[in-house]
Amino acid sequence: MTSEPTTVDTPLKKLVGEKTAKALASHLDLHTAGDLIYHFPRRYDERGEHTDIRSLDVGEQVTVLAQVQRTAVRPMRQRRGNLLEVTVGDGSGGVLTLTFFGNQAWRERELRPGRWGLFAGKVTEFRGKRQLNGPEYVLLGEGGDGEAAANEEVEEFAGALIPVYPAAAAVPTWVIARCVRVVLDTFTPPEDPLPATVRASRNLVGIGAALREIHRPSSKEELYRARRRLKWDEAFAVQLTLVQRKHRAAAWPAQARPAKPGGLLDAFDARLPYELTPGQQAVGREIAADLATAHPMHRLLQGEVGSGKTVVALRAMLQVVDAGGQAALLAPTEVLAAQHFRGMLDLLGPLARAGELGAADDATRVELVTGSLGAAARRRALAEVAEGRAGIVLGTHALLYEGVDFHDLGLVVVDEQHRFGVEQRDALRAKADQPPHVLVMTATPIPRTVAMTVYGDLEVSTLSQLPQGRSPIASHVVPAAEKPAFLDRAWRRLREEVAAGHQAYVVCPRIGDGPSSEEEAPREDDNGRRPPLAVTEVAPLLAEGPLHGLRIGVLHGRLPADEKDAVMRSFAAGDLDVLVATTVVEVGVNVPNATVMIVLDADRFGVSQLHQLRGRVGRGSAAGLCLLVTEAVEGSSARERLDAVASTTDGFKLAELDLEQRREGDVLGATQSGRRSHLRLLSLLRDADLIRDARAEAITLVEEDSELARHPALAASVAALVDEERAEYLEKG
């Protein structure tokens, strides 16, 4: 359509026509030649090889390379006309049924046995068979009558490697491939942003060759080289951003908060009823050294559920209080904030009762600030915080509001950081006169490459030992659909634990009765699955059925705060036998007497979430039991995921599994920033060596030229790949 050179900024409507450009924009957010060129194939099918149809999941939008095996026409039952059923296979025993409604004799002639094609659609299930209803398809020319070979699109699949693109129902992969070919015909690649020295030392191909070969590979070797170069660009952009920000942060001023011999921290250590683990002691020394410097600490503390992160954080807070400052802990839920508050008051005893009878000489005060505080209690708490009498302040998002002012905020502790957005963490930091020290905690173990990539500007400390007295947790999958008797046994097992004097959790994915921010699973399912089970529906059924006679409480995010607190207190006090809850119990809830957890619709939860949830049991001297109830069938990816969770309590192994099953972009915070992921090829799991090398090059380059002034093309490329919003996300960790 145009003979002018095409650049990354050329609008697609100039190249592929108004209608196609509109479809690419509305369905795939592709507007320019650059957007399309950087819309890389998801995979490559190879003639003679097959897509494994058996691995397809119901609900997936797929494109499969398959061969027509047989066709059958039968009349439809409910309405006039015929139904064409086409069975296709991939050569490995996997078969898929394609269904076409209406009288389509021409399609039956076209889809004759022996023909190979690409078939795109959404996987559904009917009577135990996987199928695609009315799929889009393109047949690959094999001589025959030449009708499909005449299609322009088939030229795209003339090579041995057939690119399969992330597509939409309205824009199948072969339409994208045709558009890419049109763009490449006149495309002028941008100036190569990578310094020539880096390209040479790392043996990387030029950007122009990489962009051509990734779409139209001339061989597997050239495709590998193209992918390696483009992965490098992604890794290098992220690492340069992180190294630059770490470099800048090192120059920020902060008030040093050195340890004070004979102060609150020493008094606290003396009254601790147990000995700190060697890991807690080592991490404590790292944090103490950070706090004593005149630059802000920015440290990530990760540790398995129950590894004692809270005590480490409290010791850091006491060091800051000893040095005349205040420390604030931001918790994701009121339940967790209130539990931290009670736990810290118990641990500190007279050290937290400044101004009260029986207080220690150098005591401070601990205040809780949540949205549900009454007006009088709120005024009193805010005055304690503003005047500096409260050295330790705990709270939820309410800490971020206007009117919450600190006397001298020296340390911000963020608990379960993944539950907070960038703006929330930043709002709390902004309440200090100069940058406070920041300690970010997570109980979701983070694989090394994720720590290097997502938290590359933080120092990372890891607690891997569990304190003495923690009990093992056994986990089992309960296949409710295949073996209903196993579910009956699960409820009997729960009753046995209660009879032995213990307590139990029953977790559901949904609250019920309307939408909620806690709910991630959809109310209705396109693939015929029932809606996820809900707390408000399950609790009465259990009370009338298998758990009849037990004391059952209900906990979810839509309850008023005082009611939530009352339920949690009752459960902690042993006044309830069973707590039916949503994931509001996922983090931090500590009831040592709870020994069993039954997770209903467990396949609706993520791997890390399940690992967090089961960490709520086995917190005392009695062993813990976690039962993962599911209707997912054996062999499905959902079932394999649950089997993996049941097979190990190693959070780091599970974190890697979780990473394998999520889009890499989610890891980089695309979900938090609301933007499309810019991490298209790089795998944080499989490309660990490349990420490490990119970080080493980034450190060298930033030390020589911190703002990349001598490399303007590279600076522009980094800005495009890691936009400012994402850069801030990375910085705030």
UniProtKB/TrEMBL annotation:
Organism whose genome encodes this protein: Micromonospora viridifaciens
PROSITE patterns: HELICASE_ATP_BIND_1, HELICASE_CTER
Protein name: Probable DNA 3'-5' helicase RecG
Domain (Helicase ATP-binding) ranges: 290-463
Residue ranges of every copy of the Helicase C-terminal domain listed in the record: 486-660
Region of interest called Disordered, as start-end residue ranges on this chain: 509-531
Coiled-coil boundaries: none
Sample GO molecular function, one term: DNA helicase activity
PANTHER family linked to this entry: ATP-DEPENDENT DNA HELICASE HOMOLOG RECG, CHLOROPLASTIC
Keywords, in A-Z order: ATP-binding, DNA damage, DNA repair, DNA-binding, Helicase, Hydrolase, Nucleotide-binding
The keyword Hydrolase is assigned to this record: yes
Phylogenetic lineage: Bacteria, Bacillati, Actinomycetota, Actinomycetes, Micromonosporales
Top-rank taxon, per record: Bacteria
GO biological process annotation, one example: DNA repair
